[in-house]
């Protein structure tokens, strides 16, 4: 199977054959080079965690998007954002990436809404502070993702919200 | 010396206070909220008592309950740590009524120091430079008028806030009201007077330095080398260097003299630290913290003085056990605070369970942490989970050692500030001293710092690992689909084998 | 400076060497046996390569494989750590053939130092006091005759042994043969010449001191404050104090001069340490270790000199970066080695899985460890899993701090030496210096040390917990019996609830 | 139920009623005192691990004999040997403690027999070294538990033994 991986510095074409078992070292082609790769340990979600590449050991950490696609790999503690955008395979078609509905803002962490800076119907500029969500003693300003009108404010001051809850909508 | 001391805090400072109190031969007693039951301070105390959690409010701020316990246990003194009730005058008064000492400067001093606006006036009276600002007010229109006079941006501050709580940078008039509301709401939860707010000119591109001072009952005083805490986010310090490598000897001497005058004028007893904001060569007096600060450990490492133990000992009426000469040094110490925050996502809190925590390793590398493998980091408290420190002959060497130390610090399971801190320690503008208090506040700058630390080889490894992880998902799905469409149990066995092997 | 260094060791010293090499800006490469894959040194190295495990033998002693790898990777130098191949002349020769430097003193020096019997002759030639002993021999009858001349007890030593391996105390003639056989069998596995054994008078009730020395290519030399390592078991050091509080200034000066003469005579380059045995005021030269020792970290803490980094730097031809004055100090540092051993059962190895590891905490407490929560401690290697250190103004304060530090060190899941070490730090004869190298070797003495640390209240808690644990077993059994004899499913549910809640 | 616990410093009588649940604080009588006890956490084998006694928290560790009886409790990191030798209960009778067969010596840890100091039929004194078992780089002298004749030596030099394997027998 062939994967196209886009990163900040390069776009790479990666070719992997077979089902890739533990213990057994197999070749993977990256652009024109071939690297010998052996998986040593995987995470509970099946992502590669310890891997030997050309006989060198790497401890890595794969972070996935909501749909399970890898979106970041931490190598030696440094995060590398990755984007796999094309897969050539007869067997497997990945689901399309989830669409981002601009204007909807959801809580990226659990916390408490401690202040609303604006109210429904107010005009709002992109980057303006709309509400403050507190977690870990810290206040997190939640900013408007685009300019427009604040169509809906889903929580009031004092509300506890969970990760993923809708906070407000800009239209 | 006291026979028993109650440590009324949690986390890093709780464990360190418990240690200091035990070393002095006093009984170390502590309190905890139920989800802190397994923390180091609780485990290591001679006695630990569980706080009853009320439906609302933070248990560590429950004055009634803590005073009642201290009284029942007949402790001699209470160590408040930092934050929470450390600068709370009411707490000190209530303990005092029971004949229990709160380890902090005396009443009139903390009364003044905990009121930032009154302290500004006091400093001005001594002829010290103070930032342009306003009186305390609870009238939004008054604050708007004052802000116009000062000129935007301004910092809006709760008069009795502490530890970076109740501070807001306000860029334009329309944000005054919302911020006022959010500060007063926060004030109620963190037990300072709500509706008491003042404004100060916001100086961006400034540096922060602070001078720790110890002063005993006889008025003997030692001023420790200054700490630079310029690298912050949300008014919380992330990097501490001591001494500061970027101020002139003449400025240092001037500030030191100001500090000496200030603590003598206030007749302070105990440990405090005096904070200044440096706008180029212009220094402004900011505030005096009447409690030991999170960065104290950097000074302990630099000077070899066990500041916490000394603080308890001074409070018990003992004279300082060391003189000014003992703390003068030509070394440099640096401390990096590690927080459970997603630095690629504007420092969003990153609670969760720690899968593995490996502390950095080796000669000359020192760490404090109160979380361990399989601990959970919650959203209730401060996100600081570790402090890593190095000490060397000069700043370059200390930073070099820190860079390797952070390479050797692994926290799996939650996002932390380690990657950013690691990259920062290798970032040329930081190394050359070309930074200010806004250094980490913009996403563009953080991205530049990250980018400077990435390598093409590791980037390629990241591509490969991402593709391989996805490949394994797809081949697994393929296998499972095959299994589902096949009645032979052998294939089902294969599939479950496959799953089991991945655990 | 080197561009890359291969660290050819494991555990504590591997991780610390990797750190030192990285701090110097060299690429740190290391090796590992498969079950060490997750260790700190392997994780933190720039590159790590897995050793192929042969059916017999210790992979870290596999000269062929390590030399081949070093050659293939074109490293400039190999750091051997301590133990394993650190003092192996053959290893140095093989690397040298490939143009790779082994970081150790030069050939003729390690040739002499690794042969303890030849070194005794050399020392005698310099007029230094040497313990009564025999020539190297491989004839049991000859050894028996020599032992009679010396007088029992004697220590039987492998001429080329290292790190406490190949040493036996022999109390009577009938034990000579068995011990000779066991030493030669051990010699084969640990790669020194078998059948080469000599005898030395066994001085019980003695103290051990050692002087670390650094000497650069230009012959500049620094002698560090001496370390006392009297508290041992099976010739392995458990407690290190530096400097030694129980030798007179005149004896210290005499030994220091002897050390200086010795290293200059040998023209040693690098880091070594010179060991003496003190029988009252009579000092005997024991041996010179040509590698950095486990206790080096105590000296690094005491003096602020990063000894490992300095060692690599000297090996690369750099001059010493510090002088004698930099290491003279009036402080005291103490280090306690924690081992996975059952101290209540004659130090029996205690392998197993670590359920939880909390390192000690707070200002002035420093720890090195390479095991973490959920790591397994195996039976293949050294049982030392951590080193805890404190530094203070004097010995009493350093011990006091250590006592609290050990109180705050928790390792669950395996038995360790922590309880004994903790009790030792509070045991009056230890505090007053009334101890010797036999202090921990008798069960009676260990029991006395433990007993002095127990309290009636905790004893009562132990009774209560034991009874309560048994009570829960029995009530559970009762419940299950009831459930079995009852067909109602509700009771089965109760029973499984009961079980689940206990998890 | 009433338990008699013998320790180095005292013999204590402990009375526990009921089934002792989590969460609920109940009285336990020790000799003449009464302590209020609440279990917070147990080990995988059901032994008490975290307990509140008179409102104070204790982290403890119970070690059991082969038959499951507690033989040592670690309080604040210090081991206290305990011996429960009498239980008064109508419901539950503990099995008798296992008999120690003097003369039989089994391996207390996995390791390798690296030297035999004596051979079968040799006379042996109590405390004399019979063989050397190596584990963790260390040699452990295995001593004769009593004086007599070495009746049987179950392993030879070089043998790998597991914990519990018979090493030798003195008669």
Automatic annotation (TrEMBL), chains A, D:
Pfam families named among the record's database cross-references: Biotin_lipoyl
Classification via Gene3D superfamilies: 2.40.50.100
InterPro entries for the chain: Biotin_BS, Biotin_Carboxyl_Carrier/Decarb, Biotin_lipoyl, Single_hybrid_motif
Domain Lipoyl-binding: start-end pairs: 96-171
Superkingdom of origin organism: Bacteria
Signal peptide start and end residues: none
Keywords linked to the UniProt accession: Biotin
UniProt cross-references to PANTHER family, sorted A to Z: OXALOACETATE DECARBOXYLASE ALPHA CHAIN
Protein name: Lipoyl-binding domain-containing protein
Biological source species: Pelagicoccus mobilis
Taxonomic placement: Bacteria, Pseudomonadati, Verrucomicrobiota, Opitutia, Puniceicoccales
UniProtKB/TrEMBL annotation, chains B, C:
GO MF: ATP binding; ligase activity; metal ion binding
Gene3D superfamilies hit by this protein: ATP-grasp fold, B domain
Ligase is among the record's keywords: yes
InterPro entries: ATP-grasp, BC-like_N, Biotin_carboxylation_dom, Biotin_COase_C, CPAse_ATP-bd, PreATP-grasp_dom_sf, Rudment_hybrid_motif
Domain Biotin carboxylation: residue ranges: 1-445
Domain ATP-grasp, chain residue ranges per copy: 120-316
Keyword line: ATP-binding, Ligase, Nucleotide-binding
Superkingdom, taxonomy of origin: Bacteria
Keyword Nucleotide-binding found: yes
Coiled coil residues, start to end: none
Protein's name according to its UniProt entry: ATP-grasp domain-containing protein
Organism from which the protein derives: Pelagicoccus mobilis
